[in-house]
Write a structure and sequence with these properties.
The structure is a single chain. The protein is mainly beta and 91 residues long. It has one domain. It is built from 1 helix and 6 strands, in the order E-E-E-E-E-E-H. The strands form 2 sheets. A 3-stranded antiparallel sheet has the order 1-5-6.
Length: 91
């Protein structure tokens, strides 16, 4: 099978933080659902739902929310994100 290398692309991403530090950086289409008995959605156990091009997907604290090159938004698990992306400088 032929080999291919992923093109270098700069993306926007924010990690879902159980303490809610992400709350003002979430893109449109990401909805938090509180954990049971929580008085707000920024707690461990909170679930997030993301409207993607493939339908609604779920993300948990620790996952990354990525805005792709075409403006699409989707979740990515932390180990995969760290293996795939590195910090980039830009405006």
């Amino acid at each position: 099978m032929p080999l291919f290398r992923k093109k270098p692309v700069v993306i926007e991403a924010v990690q879902l933080d159980p303490l809610g530090a992400h709350r003002h950086a979430l893109p449109r289409g990401v909805y938090g659902v509180p954990s049971p008995n929580a008085d707000n959605w920024a707690y461990a156990g909170c679930r997030f739902f993301i409207d993607t091009l493939e339908g609604q997907m779920e993300a948990l604290p620790g996952d990354w929310i990525i805005r792709g090159v075409a403006g699409e938004v989707y979740p990515c698990k932390d180990p995969i994100f760290r293996a795939t992306y590195e910090p980039a400088e830009g405006p």
